[in-house]
Amino acid sequence: LIDDGDQIYIVTSSHYKFVAEKLKRCLFTHLPFLTKENVIITYNKSLIRCDLLLDDAEHNLVNFKGIKVVFDAPYNKNTSVADFRVTSWKDFYELISELKTAISFIV
Known about the structure:
Blueprint (H helix, E strand, L loop, with lengths): L9 E3 L6 H12 L8 E3 L10 E4 L2 H4 L5 E5 L12 E3 L2 H18 L1
Parallel strand pairs: 1-2, 3-4, 4-5
């Protein structure tokens, strides 16, 4: 997505005492192209204003005002708040590509 010109931010609601370790252990290990400038820490993800929010937890999507995408997990099979569901990062990339194509036809 970054190579396509998209801006990527990771929004975490992790407790401040555990954020540094979580970012080191998870985020920067699996997404090494991101830096601390790509991270937003907040207790309430619905305060974030962006086009799209991808999350595995339904409660983070409920009050979000943009496009809601749930990352499939056993505990969120029955969620009804998401606009879309993806099961992999590849699915997510394809969804973003489709949405950008659809929006370009509208604009």
